[in-house]
Amino acid sequence: MAREAALAACLEAVLGSRSSANRVFELLEPLAGQEEPEDIVSAARICGRLFGALLERGELFVGPLPEQDASLGESYSAQDKYRIWMRHRYRDCVGCLGELMGHEAFQVKEQALCTLMKFVELEAQYPLIKIEWKGTLTFPCDLLKVVVDGLLPTTEDASLLISRFQEYLEYDDVRYFVMKAVTASIGQVMQKTKERPLPFYQQNVFSLISPINMPNKESEMVKFMVKQDNREELKFSKLQAHRQVFQKMWLTFLKHKLPPGLYKKVLVILHDSVLPYMNEPTLMMDFLTVAYGIGGAISLLALNGLFILIHQHNLEYPDFYKKLYSLLDPSIYHVKYRARFFHLTDLFLSSSHLPAYLVAAFIKRLARLALTAPPEALLMILPFICNLFRRHPACKVLLHRPAGPADMSEDPYVMEEEEPSESRALQSSVWEIQSLQSHYHPDVAKAAAVLNQSLSEMEDDISGLLELSAAELFDREVKKKAVDVPLEFEPVRGLFGKKNDIFAEHFSLD
């Protein structure tokens, strides 16, 4: 408390008289980061008040800042010399605060961030650049770049500090210039690594840009930090310009190699948080096609983005169904994104123009994999297969083949074949579904038995089954009410069922 009181007294002295201007060094000294965190926070707060007041009073030099030695010449008045000198101290303060955003104590990072953003707001109102004509942009882009660089360290996770920064992204102009600063930062940092991933840095970039809420209409852009009369004429007030900067930022971020975990996080949000707000979503085609070819969970997640590009932007993807077919492996019934994958697969197989051999190959592979699937997946996949039979009647030959194979060893279907047209699925039958009619779970056996009768024309709604879990299935069984079944017509009267049994005198069944 004594230290904070001393700093406050120093603040009053500097603001009260220019003769005490040199005492500003007493305020800047703790910002070097060598003090206790509490003292650094107090000093940062006091410096915020000091330079905030100087900005409001117009006591900082406006225009290109001369070198400190050059300002001692006779060409500047005493007042200008003071303003130049104090502007240099302001620059020192900003530099120290930028370094403190990497301090080990979070309270110091947070105070440095808040103080810098206060300076951004004040510089927007009281610009330090000369306004030579009416359309001059007064937003402090360089100062905001210091903040963005502090939010994107390369050696530690800054997600907590970034979450503290999110409130400032509600300003349309701040969001616009943050996106430009992030784009510049990615280019500078990733160029030095020679395409080698930087997990911490790239994760921090993703944490900063993924929650950005883009406006849908220009009429929604009404919250600006800079209050300018000609704002309507400036780029950052135009939705088209926002989308252009947003698109460039994401394309710059995604053109560099990502760590596998981050790859998945990007693909999870890409289809609804990125593609709809790009001026040209088709520019994501290369990224999505590469991701789709990687395999595993990354390919599953890339399906969402590809679906949008194929259906809404006429993307042509050669061998798309061959790749989709190859994604069907035993893990497909166990992965985290199972519901999303089968929802999209259902959409991709909904066209009645697909050739019968292709749909038959999907039916056969799904049925074969169902033999080792858990019950919660089977309750979804069996209606899924039934729907495929309804949409493609030519595949019903798999159900009614009297002269079909006698046992599994004679099944002509080639499970290992990657090309659906060469799998010989149409020559086989879905004996796997018949096997599931003897499944230990009664609901699975009942669902498999549906194929014993002729299928109705109405498709089954599988939306409620896509996310069915083992826990839900267990709860459903536990909550079932058991029906009492009579085991004997006459109630038991004694231990051994005899009317006058001696044991009934000494033992009771109650």
Structural class determined from secondary elements: mainly alpha
SSE topology string: HHHHHHHHHHHHHHHHHHHHH
Major sheet details: none
Tally of helical segments: 21
Which shape, going by the Cα principal axes?
A: elongated
The overall average pLDDT, rounded, is 84
Distance between the termini: 78 Å
What percentage of the residues does DSSP assign to strands (E)?
under 5%
| Helix content estimate | 40-55%
Compute the CA-based radius of gyration.
35 Å
E-strand count: 0
Low-confidence stretches: none
Write the layout of secondary structure elements.
Blueprint: H1 2-16, H2 24-28, H3 37-57, H4 78-100, H5 106-125, H6 141-151, H7 159-165, H8 172-192, H9 199-209, H10 239-254, H11 260-274, H12 285-294, H13 296-313, H14 320-326, H15 338-348, H16 356-370, H17 375-391, H18 431-436, H19 442-448, H20 470-478, H21 503-506
Helix pairs in contact: 1-3, 3-5, 4-5, 4-6, 5-6, 6-8, 8-10, 11-13, 12-13, 13-15, 16-17, 17-19
Sum this structure up briefly.
This protein has 510 residues and is mainly α. 53% of the residues lie in helices and 0% in strands.
Describe the structure.
- With 510 residues, the chain is mainly alpha-helical.
- It has 21 helices and no strands.
- The protein has helices at residues 2-16, 24-28, 37-57, 78-100, 106-125, 141-151, 159-165, 172-192, 199-209, 239-254, 260-274, 285-294, 296-313, 320-326, 338-348, 356-370, 375-391, 431-436, 442-448, 470-478, 503-506.
- The chain is elongated and about 120 Å long.
